[in-house]
Amino acid sequence: MTSRLDQPREIRRTLVPRPHYDPESFGRLSERIARFLGTARFLVYMTVFVLVWIGWNLLAPAFLRFDPYPFIFLTLMLSLQASYAAPLILLAQNRQDDRDRVQYEQDRARNDRSIADTEYLTREIAGLRVALSEVATRDFLRSELQQLVKELDAKDGHRTVP
Question: How far is 108 from 101, CA to CA, in rounded Å?
Fold first, then answer.
């Protein structure tokens, strides 16, 4: 919730100060983590990590093993990783949804402007066509003059021929 500038802030006094963090920085960090979690590199790293873990705990001397066969500690580690990964991925998706929504609104506004411009230009072209239909064009004048020349030649031809 953002604070409003037209209202005073509430003064809260607590014995333990609340930690402050920048939501934007945290959001960017979560996007970077989510982007990394969705790569083949991460899958390879996790596979190597799990294989080394299992290999160590199966093949190492008994006094160096720290997680015997059911690998309960490995399961706990993977569950912990998943419990942090899921909210980070959701946060990154929410931020992407917000960006997509803003982009959609901008695209819609741009399309509305384009439609309005197109309609305006269509009206202008229609107006020009109406205005041009009332103005004699070069081709129209040329055809009219050719018609007059033919008529004059025809009249001259009738006079010379008795």
Answer: 10
